[in-house]
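Encode chain A's predicted structure.
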Amino acid sequence: MSIRLKRLYDKPAKSDGRRVLVDRLWPRGVKKDQARIDQWLKDIAPSTSLRKWFKHDPRKWKEFKKKYAAELEDRHEQVEKLVREARKRTVTLLFSAKDAHHNNAVALREYLTK
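Encoded structure for chain A:
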């Protein structure tokens, strides 16, 4: 299974494979027709309340991952589709956060690979 991570603002590459945006909100300053995404899975992103609670605070990272994993349990169908796709070809999870180490795409990839 090949799941990569990339900031949406970074230049797309052929090696990205299927580009999937996993943020609930559309990234600022990016026009939809220029984003070069294959799919936007906003419903697989953390809930609004969890996102607001986390605020990309690294001190909350471990607890965020636990809470997000609990939310993903309720999104089993979407999770399974993403796993099946990643078994066929490379999937790049796109995110807009500035912190490349503490964001929902990182937590999602960890969840998907378990």
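Strands lie at 3-7, 18-21, 39-40, 91-95.
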